[in-house]
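Running this now, will post back.
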Amino acid sequence: MHIIPVIDLLGGCAVHARRGQRAHYQPVASRLCDGSAPADVASAMLAYCAADTLYVADLDAIGGGPVQAAVLRTLLGTLPGITCWLDAGFASAAAAEATLATLAALGAHAPRVVPVFGSESLGHASPFARYPHAALSLDQRGGVPLGDAYWWQQASGWPRDIIAMTLDQVGAFNGPDLGMIARLRTHAGADRRIIGAGGIRDASDLQAAAAAGAHAWLVASALHELRIPPRTQPHLPPHAPA
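Update: finished.
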């Protein structure tokens, strides 16, 4: 099972996500490193997992504010070779393009940013012709799908990477939603990768998720609390955006 470390950004700080209740998130307190500076936290998580892909949730942008461009520039400048999956509340391909344009100062680093389009924010028009290598996050809370029903019903419009985001499981340590993984695996077909998010307690949960059909899992809390042993092999291969 591949692990993709997750860092949630709020007001320039790495915060601890719990059950998707973003108004109550507090700065990260991690056993992997001191403090909550995003670059330090991300570096420690990536090293612990031997990962080459980092998932970044820009909570300011998801909430309707501007993208935290300075923090993202620092992250990518500090982490050479790392692919950044960026969830910034993109409602459309145009919104993603506008956000990525603000990162133009990254220069050679900019192609390492892969947009993540969440059903919670995404409109009906598909962004995947413009961004064929982007990921689609199917977001749900309390078993209720969030956003436009189209994205849940029309698997033919899905990109290669599908994230099963169970927001109320995030940081809760109550186990992954294996039923959602199995359902998406059935609809997605063999050519798509299912990436889970939320609920991981330990390595046995990762094994169960793999058996249910997940290719990878987004993990934060279980890493900060050292509930998963360190990894020594590289993980999910990055892919460049169009």
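The longest strand covers residues 2-10. More later if anyone needs it.
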